[in-house]
Write a structure and sequence with these properties.
By secondary structure, the chain is an alpha/beta fold. It has nine helices and 18 strands. Helix 4 packs across helix 5. Bound molecules: zinc ion (2 copies).
Amino acid sequence: MRAMVFERVGAPLRAVELPVPSPGPGQLLLRISACGICRTDLHLLDGEVAIAHPPRVLGHQIVATSVADGRRVGVPWLGWTDGDCPQCRAGRENLCEHARFTGRDIDGGYAEYAVADERFCLEIPGDHPDEQVAPLLCAGLIGYRSLSLCGDAHRVGFYGFGAAAHILTQVARWQGREVYAFTRAGDDAAQAFARELGAVWAGASEDAPPAELDGAIIFAPVGALVPAALRAVRPGGTVVCGGIHMSDIPSFPYEILWGERVLRSVANLTRSDGHEFLALAAQARVRTHVNTYTLERANEALADLREGNFTGAGVLLP
Ligand SMILES: [Zn+2]
Ligand SMILES: [Zn+2]
């Protein structure tokens, strides 16, 4: 099969031919039709998040068909847990001490086939095309976990308006919330896109929103956004850092945290997040805006993601 493989930090992915993998006990052999690209893949390429055992096939937003029975399934970032560590036993499998992640510890979806532990595959409700479903599996799902951690916040701010925010804006509106979109200064395309999707306000990250926010999610991997977001939320509000990696957070005066503001990160997902979110996305009729690339163009797709060359999400079509 054809695959795009990570070999070492700083090098582009390499197109290779690999044998079709054989499923072990409890695993499904999957024929992949679409795989979303994610900022985490850039962190892996850059070595900001480490791959312990290269070579590795990246890709953790897989939409595929089970070869054995023709079922359509999604494979997310959480690929395996031990089920037995203190975190798992407390219902926090997203924090499992021995978790294995798709496209980092387990070969992922930048390929024609993959194998996956059946217990971690997600059923995909509805009949949306595969390439439109793919971005729901990380951008949507971890974004949804971040939004849930904002509680009942009515006015929510999204810092960084990429794949996750474009999905979450639709979910937040469907839940009756107001969305405030923050982008890089001068990114008129992203701000117009946010307004089109129903954001009540869109502006630059340094701007003060027209109303105090009840909660904010930082999707961009930029530590300087933490004090900016804390300044924008009201006392008692929450700021969630939604990414796996962020540049260092500059020091800031205690007064912008004081007033019982909460600052927290979100890490990975649980299977119940997956079931809950995919059902909700179908019910809320979430539509993703996707930019598709053939598998061989994976490096170009990742460069476009890095440069902000498209709005919405990027998806590879093996
Ligand atoms: Zn565990
Ligand atoms: Zn991801």
